[in-house]
Amino acid sequence: MITWVLIHAKKYKTAILSLVFFSLIFYGPVLVKGTVYYWGLPTLQFYPWRHVAFQSLSRGSLPFWNPFNGMNSPLLANYQLAFFYPPTWILYFFELVGGVGWMAWAHTLVNLAHFLWGGMGMAAVVQKHKGSPLAQTLAAMAFSGCGYFLARQGVFPILWTGAWLPWLVHFVSDIGSPFEKAEEISSKGWLHLPLTACLAIMLLAGHAQLSWYFVWFCGAWVMVGVLIQHKPIGSAALRYIASGLLAGAIAAVQLIPTAEFLLQSQRSGAVDFSTAAAYSFWPWRWITFLAGNFFGNPGTGDYWGYASFWEDAIYIGILPLGLAVAGLIQFFRIKGLPKKRTSLLAAWIGIILVAIFAMGKFTPVYPFLYKFLPSVDMFHAPTRIMILLIFLLCFIGGITLDEIWTRPLGRRLYWTRLATAGCFAVSLGAVVAWIWLGDVSPTFIRSTAISGVIALGIGLLTLYQPDKASKHQRLWQYLVITWLALDLIIGSIDAAPTIARAEYDIFTNKQGQNTQAEGRIFISAEDEQWLRHKRFYRFKDFSPLESFSDAFLIEIANTNALIGVDSVSNFDPLLAKRYQDWMESIPMESGLELQADLLRMGAGSHLVRDPKSSYLHTRAVDDAKMPSLARFVPCAQIASNYEEARSLVGENKTNLNLVVIETAVANSLPECGGIIGSLTGNISHFERVGNNINIEYTASQNGVLVVSYTYYPGWVARLDGKKADLYPADGVFWAIFAPGGEHRVEFTYEPVSFRIGLLVTILSLGAFSLLIRKRLINQ
Questions:
Q1: What mean pLDDT do residues 761-765 have?
Q2: Do the Cβ atoms of 544 and 536 come closer than 8 Å?
Q3: Which three-class secondary structure state does DSSP give residue 164?
Q4: Residue among 71, 75, 44, 74 nearest 521 (CA)
Q5: Cross-strand pairs, 74
Q6: Is 277 within 8 Å of 311 (Cβ atoms)?
């Protein structure tokens, strides 16, 4: 492996050195100053999730659960945690050494590694298709340094998954590619082992949507390639499918628990259309291919575009875009090379199809596909597919650079001079307007001026391009690389805000509550969304309205997990359906019904936003009752299914002495009839340790013990050491039969899905290792 890396590092030396130069400018200040990406998802999701995972690991157990949010929510099965993705393991080491702040800081290191890895992959795929070192370098920088990635520095799974796309195309091109390659690699067998490895690791990187897009894109790449190159379709398709199946088996330790979570979630069927199309690419943002910040930038506080800035960020630099467009023009000029013309046509058809899909609700195509094409309704934000368009533009620009970008002569010289003079005029006019018009539409005047200057520089580089054999050729190439780096850096200024690492030190050593003494907190979805998007994390302006510590210490999203406080609320993208259904009924309640349900959930306090201000008030749910995560009831109503249970719960909202149990056979459960009294009982011990919850109680008579944790497959109950039946209670919690007297109950998470996934992964890794060994011996 080390030898392979060294060989490829030498092969792509210019590209790697350029990427390192770019990363020193972009990531260097963040790492050296000790700042971290904080805005939005890092603080609201990723840092809290990994902090909870670290706490579980430090206690000697796998992080199956996040006990702080949503009355116990799956954590390891949460695909975006990417727990089994090897590069993330260093994050837990940094928290071990320096706490939450250093763990947050280490995310930038992982981002940097993926920036370099993705760029190196882009250089590799361009080199495979006859691209020169300069072509490799420009494509690599345009891909890794594009706005899609640089504006998403806090959306870690997208960065990490996206970095694998060039490598997937690089290796899948051995099976079939639409474009002519420098050399044909003949390999035998039904598996392409490097492709399998890349697919497996990508599947662990944490973003299901991009992974799904990439798998289909690579399949289309192979099929179009074998058709254009007139190769056997069947063997290519089987080889790609076999490699993908083995990759999925290797990643089964993550995929199977995640699949179980998906089937248990609110998205087990489909995402509703309004949610699916929420982030559709705004058509006006096509302008930002030429001027990245035409509609402003929330980092500078002047964004006035549609929806969120980063979702539609697509800038790749004027030079790579110009080269790709020139490749399209070349399509109409090529004569006598039908395969090359067909390849360019196929690539541009792909670009157009991706563009139409990305615009989502702004065209009639996406709604049609949403209804009739399987898997489209699984994800939201169709604009994220733009990564494929960006890849194709960078790739086309790279492989056509050596033929297109030559020193102009004749009429080309005349038009190049004219275009360069036009760029100068545009720049000068925009600068004058910027100065004289003041605040009148400053963003598009400023961005037009900058784009004009960049285009002017490209024009001058074109006019003064030395001959290939000239001693000034290398200097000219360095100037080209530097100019592109400058273009991309300017386009990304302030796109990803940071704060001092020390801001997170307040969370270090926060262990959280392991008893039920304090109860949980509750905040409504409306108040949480208001606090998140109106007060602390505003889409139009990243600058804070108040101290960072205020945002950290108010329990929105998952920040309560950093503080160590249990919350009823959970705003993760994937939620257990039982929990989601229960929470959706809460906004329709008030008075005694709301109070009763909050007590059922073990909530001791209710965070309420003052409608006249942005401040929160904490109210006790019931001054007369202590919050409890476990309670006794004297009897149960029996429901045969989930829907019947929900209906019965709705009829008895205010009666806390009754619980609805889902079961086909009541067994020893005491059923309610007539007047329902109360059960005298005392919980003397309640403790959660890792994936276990231990309860000791004393009850005056037989009854039902209800625990305010979300019901989920895999939990096992033991009463005094003997396995006991565990039932869904009130549609969302769990319960067991509780005989009178003194008893000990232990709840343990023993997931079959994880065991199966682990076994499949171990067997698949073993098979993969044997195949690698056999291949090395044969070589």
A1: 95
A2: yes
A3: coil
A4: 71
A5: 65
A6: no
List pLDDT tens digits, range 403-438.
888 777 777 676 677 777 776 676 666 666 656 655
Instruction: Answer yes or no: are the C-beta atoms of 69 and 567 closer than 8 Å.
Output: yes
Query: Under the phi-then-psi rule, with left for phi > 0, alpha for psi from -120 to 50, and beta for the rest, what region is 307?
Result: left
The C-alpha atoms of residue 227 and residue 496 are separated, in whole angstroms, by 43
39 Cβ contact partners less than 8 Å away, ≥ 6 residues apart: 154, 496, 497, 537, 542
Q: Which two tokens stand for residue 190?
A: 């039904």
Q: What are phi and psi of 689, to 5 degrees?
A: -135, 110
Cβ neighbors of 777 (< 8 A, separation 6 or more) are none
Mean pLDDT for the chain overall: 85
Residue that wins the pLDDT comparison between 406 and 164:
164
> Is residue 365 predicted with pLDDT exceeding 90?
yes
CB 488 within 8 A of CB 145: yes
pLDDT in tens, 205-218: 999 999 999 999 99
- Greater model confidence, 664 or 318: 318
pLDDT score recorded for residue 172:
94
CA distance 189 to 582: 52
Residue 299: CB atoms within 10 Å: 20
Phi-psi region of 494 (alpha: psi -120 to 50; beta: other; left: phi over 0): left
Q: Which residues of 356-380 are buried (b: 16+ CB within 10 A; e: fewer)?
A: bbbbbbbbeebeebbeeeeebbebb
pTM above 0.90, yes or no: yes
Tell me what the mean pLDDT of segment 322-348 comes to: 76
DSSP symbol at 567: B
The amino acid occupying position 230 is H
Query: Taking the mean position of all CA atoms in its chain, how far away is CA 397?
Result: 28
For residue 481, what are the contacts with CB-CB under 8 A and spacing of at least 6?
14, 18, 21, 134, 137, 138, 141
Q: What is the pLDDT of residue 148?
A: 93
Least Cα distance to 766 among 81, 252, 190 occurs for: 252
Exposure on the CB side of residue 57, measured as CA atoms within 13 A: 15
Q: Choose between 1 and 712: higher pLDDT.
A: 712
**Secondary structure class of 282 (helix, strand, coil):** coil
Enumerate the β-bridge partners of residue 617: 608
